[in-house]
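Reopening closed ticket. The problem is back. First fold of the pair:
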Amino acid sequence: MVLEYPYFLINFKTATETVGEDGLAFARTIERVRDDTGRHFAVAPQLTDLRLVAERTALPVVAQAATLAENAVMGATTYEAVAAAGADAVFINHPQNEATFADVARAVGRCADRGLESIVCVNSLEQGRAALTFDPDCLLFERPDDIASESGMVRTHPERIEAFVDMVATENPQTRVFVGGGIRTAADVEQAFACGVDATGAASAALEATDRAAWLRSVAGSVPHTAASSD
């Protein structure tokens, strides 16, 4: 399975209601909305449920984190382990799980070696430009203060997203751009894609929705169709 752009990602984070069978049930709801709407979705389940979701749904699966084998201690989950469990991609240097600059470079290389797509998280244009020297598959542009907030960049400073997209297109046009942080509504999703990004996603808004299927359908309407898709 590969990540098909443009897509919308649902991150399960560490919510108690996304563990085990409950998480699988939510993933299957996402899968049904994907099938009904023809839009692309991906999921980032809890690490313990990677194999469960990968084997029992047809959704692309992103590992929330992974550890370089040379840095791993008891209880860590390596890039080799998430690849074996069926992950298609990995978040690297997430604001809630930061890595050193040197480890980011090694992690991108490890992803390439293991057939995983690398999604490197950065919080500024300057950090993004530096990360591009590692040739990642995707950059996730997200400010830590925007996570789970009501005022993400997509609402307050869309011009910063546009500038970031332009920088990536100039510096390394093969790298995709994902924007996150504070994405809560279909209007937010529409604005994100209008800024030129290739993907966006949410965690809190999806988990807090009273009717998750209805929320997902609303969001799906703002995810662009691919050339091969039709209404």
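Second fold of the pair, where the issue appears:
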Amino acid sequence: MYEDMRLRAYPDGQASRFFYFGPLPDHPEMAFMQRYLRPGDGFIDCGANEGVYTLLAAKLVGSAGEVHAFEAVPLFITRLRANIRANHLTMVTVHPDAVGAEPGRMPFVIRGVGSRIQTREDLTSTANTVDVNIVRLDDVLPDRSWAMGKLDIEGAEHQALTGAEKLLARGEPAVLMLELVDRFLIRFGSTVTQVREWLADHGYEFVCYEPGPNRLVTVSDSFVPTPNVLVVSRERRAEVDARLHGAL
């Protein structure tokens, strides 16, 4: 994968995506990363799973960059670390934690790629749970510039953003890639509209990336591209556009 990287294939894992969908299975998002990220950049991967995005980011930021990968599911942590070792990715730091609004320890529901912090609707479920550490991004990330962050944490995205309020106030990271699904967010007391309004209040705007013309397009207030969205710091929008066109 990604020309010279290796991803261990499991029957229930993510490698099948490369067989079915090609070298960039999430094409718009991954094409954006390839054109935007630079050697030495910082990348945050929340909900890293086996490391599909972590590995791509590591390849792009290189040995001078930093990738911080957060994953709470024990099986995925083991696979993530194995894939990092197989590719000798010394720039990657693994955090075996979930990301939220407040630090602590919480039950975590184990449901494969749908694993998440336990909510009220899970209390009557027969799914397995494990206790995991919850961390705030403001508390655990190094003090540096962050080019990009990814949050795919099954509805807890708003909570994780709340735990990164100091970072966001500085326009860090410049770009966020979020999975936003109303029925997932509602479990945690939020909605896509509320997340968008909260991010707007914190200096970020929703955009669509068009790989063909290689451009970001600001989306109207009446349209939210879901489930996967890109959000850009308004103060750093010119920097992001310049990178896409090779000016930086």
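Update: turned out to be a display glitch only; the data is intact. DSSP finds ten helices and twelve strands in the chain. The chain has a mean pLDDT of 94. Please close again.
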